[in-house]
Amino acid sequence: MLGSGLSNQIGAATGSLAFPVLGPMGVVAVRQYVAAIVLLAIGRPRLRDFTWQQWRPVILLALVFGTMNLSLYSAIERIGLGLAVTLEFLGPLAIALAATRRRVDLCCAVIAAAGVVTLMRPQPSTDYLGMGLGLLAAVCWASYILLNRTVGRRVPGAQGTAAAAGLSALMFLPVGLVLVLRNPPTAEAVGCAVAAGVLASAVPYLADLFTLRRVPAQAFGLFMSVNPVLAALTGWIGLGQSLGWTEWAAVGTIVTANSLSICTSRT
After folding, report:
1. Measured between alpha carbons, how far is 130 from 80 in angstroms, rounded to an integer?
2. φ and ψ at 194, to 5 degrees?
3. Which tens digits make up the pLDDT trace of 9-54?
4. CA atoms within 13 A of residue 126's CA, in its CB half-sphere
5. What is the pTM of this model?
6. Which DSSP symbol is given to 185?
7. How far is CA 98 from CA 106, 108, 111, 115, 195, in A?
8. Contact between residue 58 and residue 107 where contact means Cβ atoms under 8 Å apart
């Protein structure tokens, strides 16, 4: 679990190093290509056998794949890795809290909302566009969870997710061609983008696959809540993106809200 979380955040940090050359759009395009290669090799979807009822959620999932990664990486460019991942994490937290009607979950929602208000409090240096992109990534992550459930019910195995990854990569193919023709990227920038695809897509996917065979889902979900902290530490150590005490407090409240909800849930 620790390896998966660190790999994901280090991958995002590595991808951000290519922003000056490729920009968030170019990095996301390369990441989509790498994710498609890995998932298509694992899922091996039989596309000819798909019905329209199966294709509909797969197409929507492909759109969410691209939008989620593009909004997240654009947010990372503007507000830093730690804050961007923290805002994105509100997506699965909202799904978890909306699924129950317990008083403790209402308290968790209030705690998480307090963290968001703290992050987005008006200041001369507040980047509202960056914050908005982080929240868009949260909406996409919540949509990704819901669509993945639908795809999982309608398409056997990992075929649906693999097909969505491949379709998303095709959507970003023109982006890659335009970037190469307008401004040929350096080998270093492409290497960072490919590393981001491997570390943030392939490694976490496989690590989580093996982890969930050995670790209860509740414990896995509890550890997932540490990802915003891992992102903040990775951004601080690897990219020099330090956070003030108010930002750390906001990250802590959102992590606490998720942890409290999971720890008090009935198994």
Report:
1. 9
2. -65, -40
3. 999 999 999 998 888 888 998 888 988 888 888 888 888 888 888 8
4. 14
5. 0.83
6. P
7. 9, 11, 15, 18, 35
8. no
